[in-house]
Design goal:
This protein is an alpha+beta fold. Helix 2 packs across helix 3. The radius of gyration is 20 Å and the shape is elongated. The strands form two sheets. The protein has a seven-stranded antiparallel sheet, with no helix packed on it. A two-stranded antiparallel ribbon has the order 1-2. The protein has two domains: about 70 residues, lambda repressor-like DNA-binding domains (434 Repressor (Amino-terminal Domain), Orthogonal Bundle), CATH 1.10.260.40; about 120 residues, Umud Fragment, subunit A.
Length: about 210
């Protein structure tokens, strides 16, 4: 509880958010927030996560995030380094990539990541070998990839894209050649595709991990 309070107060200071502003975001009284932050009352896990979400820390796993820093006393470390937070994102289906929304938790399982997403991020499980390369960066079938819809899709990024006539999304690398953009597989045996305005970029892949 002490660590949660310290984290909330540090984030409020960083964002220059008062208790009054935080209470307004939560739809409650300033006194109620004050009771939590001054340890007069103890919020449940759901309310702890509501507060963290109101401070822009979506899907934070309260029970798992707080770790003591290994630095010597007196060393200045950042908020992220001090708490080493892990975030909780839903694992989606390739046919549902545009439907992942905060609050619709029942159909999804969740996986943790140390990546703090800009948007409503979600995991996908890689299907097929189109992104399996003979050398260099290679993302094999079965790996989990974390997709952030709010990261800008620039050339060189790995992206999840979808054409309007397709029910499923695809995983490719966005490149630019001669002023034209293409969606390119890492596996050279697959063809690249011309990126057009009709193609929707669902999000940028920011992390890949294998499950054992």
């Amino acid at each position: 509880m002490d660590k949660w309070i310290e984290l909330v107060k540090a984030k409020m200071s960083e964002l220059k958010i008062t208790q009054e502003i935080l209470a307004e975001r939560l739809g409650m009284s300033q006194g109620g927030v004050g009771h939590w932050l001054n340890k007069r009352r103890e919020p449940g896990v759901d309310n702890m996560n509501r507060v963290l979400k109101a401070l822009g820390m979506d899907f934070l796993e309260v029970a798992l995030v707080i770790r003591e820093p290994e630095d010597a006393p007196g060393d200045e470390i950042s908020l992220t380094q001090k708490y080493n937070p892990y975030f909780r994102y839903p694992v989606s289906d390739w046919r549902e990539t545009g439907e992942v929304r905060d609050g619709e938790q029942a159909p999804y399982r969740f996986e943790l990541s140390d990546y703090h997403a800009q948007g409503a991020a979600f995991w996908l499980t890689v299907v097929g070998d189109a992104m399996t390369a003979p050398s260099g960066l290679s993302i094999a079938e079965g790996m989990l990839i974390l997709v952030d819809p709010d990261v800008e899709a620039e050339p060189g990024k790995l992206v999840i894209a979808q054409w309007p006539d397709s029910s499923e999304a695809i995983f490719r690398k966005l490149i630019e050649e001669g002023g034209q953009r293409y969606l390119v597989p890492l596996n050279p045996t697959y063809p690249k595709a011309l990126y057009t305005q009709e193609c929707r970029i669902i999000g940028v892949v920011v992390q890949a991990t294998a499950k054992f």
